[in-house]
Amino acid sequence: MSGSFAAMQKRLDPFGVLIIAFVTAVGGGTVRDVLLDVPVFWMHDMIMCSLIFFTCLISMIFKSVERKFRVTLFLFDSFGLGLFTIVGIQKGLSAELHPLICLTLGTITGCFGGIIRDILLNRIPLIFRKEIYATASLLGGSVFLLFVNYSRFSYTFVQISTILLIVGIRTLAVKYQWQIPKFYGSEQNSEM
Predict the structure, then answer these.
(1) Region 104-130: what's the mean pLDDT?
(2) DSSP string, the chain
(3) Is the CB of residue 145 less than 8 Å from the CB of residue 103?
(4) pTM of the entire structure?
(5) CA–CA distance, 185 with 172 (Å, rounded to integer)
(6) Handedness of CA 16, 72, 52, 159 (dihedral sign)
């Protein structure tokens, strides 16, 4: 839905909205699967493709009430970030990769759909300039790996608690406008 709304803000036609929604939904997992050299997950899952199509259709129908759904969409986006981060890490662990590579795969899975969306919409990706997004994924993913390797908590508890941690970090970051420090002057539009 975040891809659909971003595309509609740029006044794309329905086909463009569908493409941006699709790329946003599956972009990170696609990059992950290509890196792992495994079959791309959505190519064998028509339920996933149908869900993206119908979600996109619903978002186009209800575009007029978008502002009422902002908090809901933010929460779904945050839960998606948490879930996809964990899924990416688990795929890396299944491939018996180093934990740092697993963490990278989790961050790619959680974030790259939004990066690709923003690039296609001719915007600097939000996670590179403003919000704590990838950082929440990295922190939550690190906690997930620590819990999996060094705690006696059940796997389900670890999954749920780290997803909630990512949602919490993201929510607090937006509420209190946390940002990663920038290492350059305060000029607004300067380029290197």
Answers:
(1) 91
(2) -HHHHHHHHTT--HHHHHHHHHHHHHHHHHHHHHHHTS--GGGG-HHHHHHHHHHHHHHHHTGGGGGGGHHHHHHHHHHHHHHHHHHHHHHHHHTT--HHHHHHHHHHHHHHHHHHHHHHTT---GGGTT--SHHHHHHHHHHHHHHHHH--S-HHHHHHHHHHHHHHHHHHHHHTT--PPPSS---SS---
(3) yes
(4) 0.88
(5) 26
(6) positive
pLDDT tens for residues 140-175?
Answer: 999 999 999 999 999 999 999 999 999 999 999 989
Q: What is the pLDDT of residues 20-73, one digit of tens each?
A: 999 999 999 999 999 999 999 999 999 999 999 999 999 888 876 666 667 777
| Amino acid at site 85 | T
Cα separation, 60 vs 57, in Å, equals 5
